[in-house]
Amino acid sequence: MLGSYSRGFWLMCLSSFLFFLSFNLLLPELPDHLAHLGGGEYKGFIIALFTLTAAISRPFSGKLTDTVGRIPVMVFGSLVCFVCGFFYPWALTVSSFLLLRLLHGFSTGFKPTGTAAFVADIVPADKRGEAMGLLGVTGSLGMAAGPAFGSWVAEHFSLNAMFYCSSAAALLSVLVQGTLTETLPRAQRQRFSFSLLKLKLDEILEPRVLAPALTTLLCLLPYGAVLTVIPDQTRLLGLTGPTKGLFYICYTVASLAVRLVAGKASDTHGRVPVLRWSASLLALGLAVLVWSPSVPVFLLGAVIFGVGTGLNSPTLYAWTIDLSHPERRGRGVATMYIALEVGIGIGALLAGWIFDNQPARLPWVHALSLTSVLLALAYLLLGVRATPAGPLTDEAAVNRAMAVGAPEEMV
């Protein structure tokens, strides 16, 4: 399996690892840092503002991915990460910190869009789920290493050193991208101009991918809520210092353990059946977190939630690409990412509002997340028809799938 992918694919995986390492190593320390600046009541904005600009920028990144190229879009996103990491030590007020979080969101608005389109260009359709699983493994390794590494740097050196490490990881990601060859066909490429930033209605959302987009929104809302409250829940359970990132480690290791299997399973059995199982596991993990009186139960919830995510993520990517027209692949991916950012942002805002720094309200945050996943499961069971057929690869097949009637899709 490992030898069947190109050098360009593995370099993209390395770039993805460095990118996710860059902004995830900040996450465990940001809530306490914002509280130290006097903005404890704005903890929900740490994730919400980040995802707001990510969502706003998705239509632009999708169009530019399909016109200017995959690599320029990825480089821009990574450079934003580099610049923001460098300037965090200078954001010494609540307003400047929140402004920087707002700007930082442009990084994830651009880089992953170009990455998904690039990988779809170089991977055969019958290995798409598996490839997205491998790409997800490297990204998740960055997400797992980030919180633990960031907390270690902050504890042994300083918070500013952690910010500069984030900036350095993003710069390394840019250098790796510089070794890649552009995959957008020359006939489609255009020189960048500001006129490309003018969007028509059909360039904002790709109607062909509305089913995976809706599923993404409902399944990712819990992620925004979890990111917002887990640092506080971790501290309340007595996990401090080196153990502060245990939830993230358990969650990510569990996710990694199933991603390769999940990707291959969706190539064989279909995207929707795998997504139904993933939503069920996400719901079970969140139900455990609703009632987590001790560290072992808390970490068990992290593991189950991670397994559900490992099944969910590569399958959603592959399903989105299956339904996207090759010439609008970037816009299809961007639509899915818009749903992702909207879900995460809503989850973060609602979690911050419900929690309000009152520990007794933590179960209600996880109950909200559980409700969202149950809605996703109901939609996958009742609103989407699925067959175990492989991915759609020709225009006629795509049109037949779309004829089922929105919002239903047939895989």
Automatic annotation (TrEMBL):
<feature type="transmembrane region" description="Helical">
    <location>
        <begin position="42"/>
        <end position="61"/>
    </location>
</feature>
<feature type="transmembrane region" description="Helical">
    <location>
        <begin position="131"/>
        <end position="149"/>
    </location>
</feature>
<keyword id="KW-0812">Transmembrane</keyword>
<feature type="transmembrane region" description="Helical">
    <location>
        <begin position="361"/>
        <end position="382"/>
    </location>
</feature>
<feature type="transmembrane region" description="Helical">
    <location>
        <begin position="9"/>
        <end position="27"/>
    </location>
</feature>
<dbReference type="InterPro" id="IPR005828">
    <property type="entry name" value="MFS_sugar_transport-like"/>
</dbReference>
<dbReference type="InterPro" id="IPR020846">
    <property type="entry name" value="MFS_dom"/>
</dbReference>
<dbReference type="Pfam" id="PF00083">
    <property type="entry name" value="Sugar_tr"/>
</dbReference>
<keyword id="KW-0472">Membrane</keyword>
<feature type="transmembrane region" description="Helical">
    <location>
        <begin position="333"/>
        <end position="355"/>
    </location>
</feature>
<dbReference type="InterPro" id="IPR011701">
    <property type="entry name" value="MFS"/>
</dbReference>
<feature type="transmembrane region" description="Helical">
    <location>
        <begin position="274"/>
        <end position="291"/>
    </location>
</feature>
<feature type="transmembrane region" description="Helical">
    <location>
        <begin position="297"/>
        <end position="321"/>
    </location>
</feature>
<feature type="transmembrane region" description="Helical">
    <location>
        <begin position="245"/>
        <end position="262"/>
    </location>
</feature>
<dbReference type="Pfam" id="PF07690">
    <property type="entry name" value="MFS_1"/>
</dbReference>
<dbReference type="InterPro" id="IPR052714">
    <property type="entry name" value="MFS_Exporter"/>
</dbReference>
<feature type="transmembrane region" description="Helical">
    <location>
        <begin position="73"/>
        <end position="92"/>
    </location>
</feature>
<feature type="domain" description="Major facilitator superfamily (MFS) profile">
    <location>
        <begin position="8"/>
        <end position="390"/>
    </location>
</feature>
<protein>
    <submittedName>
        <fullName>MFS transporter</fullName>
    </submittedName>
</protein>
<dbReference type="InterPro" id="IPR036259">
    <property type="entry name" value="MFS_trans_sf"/>
</dbReference>
<keyword id="KW-1133">Transmembrane helix</keyword>
<feature type="transmembrane region" description="Helical">
    <location>
        <begin position="205"/>
        <end position="225"/>
    </location>
</feature>
